[in-house]
Amino acid sequence: MTTFASGTDTLTRDALTVLQPGFTGTTAPDWLLRRLGEGLASVGLFGRNIASPGQLAALTAQLRAERDDVLVAIDEEGGDVTRLEVRTGSSFPGNHALGAVDDVELTRAVAYELGRRLAECGVNLDWAPSADVNSNPANPVIGVRSFGADTDLVARHTAAYVTGLQSAGVAACTKHFPGHGDTAVDSHHALPRIDASSAVLQERELAPFRAAVAAGTRAMMSAHILVPALDPDRPATLSRRVLTDLLRGELAYDGLIVTDGMEMRAIAGTYGIERGSVLAVAAGADAICVGGGLADDETVRRLRDALVTAVRSGELAEERLAEAAERVRALARWTASAGAESTVARPAPDADIGLLAARRALTVTGAEGFAPLTEPPYVAALTPVANIAVGDETPWGVAAELLRMLPGTQTGSFAGEAAGRAVLEAAGARRIVAVVRDEHRHPWMERALDTILARRPDTLVVEMGVPQSTPRGALHIATHGAARVCGRAAAEVIAGR
User: Fold this and answer.
1) Residues catalogued as catalytic
2) Residue 55 neighbours by CB under 8 Å, 6+ apart
């Protein structure tokens, strides 16, 4: 068992226990190991911490050598948001692709296989799945991370995902409560607001979270959004009405409540991370996620001291902090027992499940008269600015797969008002494959396609975002996501493989 450093009092240990910090590098820094010895109970991993499965397994073993019951969390949704395969693209399609197939058993199987791979590397808490109903097509941060715009579909696939992931011994953290789908602002940059009525929220936003609770999700992540119908004054992460009265009371949820990243501007830019963390725990949160941007010992110290000071000043009840810390420890105990159980009768790995799912998710328009390409094309990626959740490290598109199938394939990335003309000039006489991502959200992208198709109507179009725009081109393939396997599935159609 873990032996805590002498001299660390109960209050300080509890304050450390509720933190889920990140760090830089592919091995654990000394300060992190020291904090684990003082009471820190969770660590959050990001793409910067992962070089390979073997390295990740060594890293988690290093953490457990210091504290055997540590929660190792990761933001691994599969699809566009991947940390395990941040430099190659995911082997699994994301939620929107799974929703397009609408086979709950497939969703469960994909989540299980993803969880199995996480567990093999020593990760036992996944900040997934997204249970947001993507009811606003202009949403800049959810999009293909959602199973779809239909509430019932999102609810049944959220439940299936939770079941699959946790059957592999990895705790699911369903997000972003009470629902981030009807926003037009990215909470990484500012505070979004949802002005839906209580009735709409009950019927639309909350249904998938009720399904997650019924499926036994072990953790739930709050959203940094203002929902006046629930609380006109404070965002959900800092709202007792949302976290305690609604989630704990009305939805009867008793698992761990984790905040979204506290350094996101929706909180840091309005309350600051110290004040925000105190308010979050007071509102009912049990774990403070921080480390996507602020990933150092100074951040841990600041948040620890802010919580301790708040208790000593009477602003935060010591019992509330102790309750939060106990929920963290309870989840750690569950992961230990679930991990042991999942290794007893674990199904054989299904390495191809992600590709099979990506193939099934394709929607192809214009296939009737289409002849697969036999000559290497020019792949033009019309590239929008990546949102922070996805990041810009992960490759996407179809060029790499087409190059493998049709050697000599060339590619370029284009953006802005001159993109269409630039594509035509770069492509020359080659057949053009235009790859877009959420064409409906980017007017410049729509105009670029207009320009390309006016001159080259034989252009093939691959939409790798949410397919809201009318399909066009000699062939239109909607992949419902930009994971590596989605690109491969589209390339197989184009090359007739």
Assistant:
1) 188, 260
2) 26
95 closest CA partner among 174, 36, 167: 174
Model confidence at 217, pLDDT cuts 50, 70, 90, reads: very high
Hey, what are 390's tokens?
Answer: 């996805």
Q: How many residues in total does the chain contain?
A: 497
Q: Is the dihedral of CA 151, 156, 161, 167 positive or negative?
A: positive
pTM: 0.94
Residues 100-119 have pLDDT tens digits of 999 999 999 999 999 999 99
Residue 411 is predicted with a pLDDT of: 97
3-state secondary structure the chain: CCCCCCCCCHHHHHHHHCEECCCCCCCCCHHHHHHHHHCCCEEEECHHHCCCHHHHHHHHHHHHHHCCCCEEEECCCECCECCCCCCCCCCCCCHHHHHHHCCHHHHHHHHHHHHHHHHHCCCCEECCCECCCCCCCCCCCCHHHCCCCCHHHHHHHHHHHHHHHHHCCCEEEEEEECCCCCCCCCCCCCCCECCCCHHHHHHHHHHHHHHHHHHCCCEEEECCCECCCCCCCCCHHHCHHHHHHHHHHHCCCCCEEECCCCCCHHHHCCCCHHHHHHHHHHHCCCEEECCCCCCCHHHHHHHHHHHHHHHHHCCCCHHHHHHHHHHHHHHHHHHHHHHHHHCCCCCCCCCCHHHHHHHHHCEEECCCCCCCCCCCCEEEEECCCCCCCCCCCCCCCCHHHHHHHCCCCEEEEECCCCHHHHHHHHHCCCCEEEEECCHHHCHHHHHHHHHHHHHCCCCEEEECCCCCCCCCCCEEEECCCCCHHHHHHHHHHHHCC
Largest CA distance in the chain: 75
Range of weakest confidence among 1-10, 20-29, 453-462: 1-10
State the pLDDT at residue 1: 43
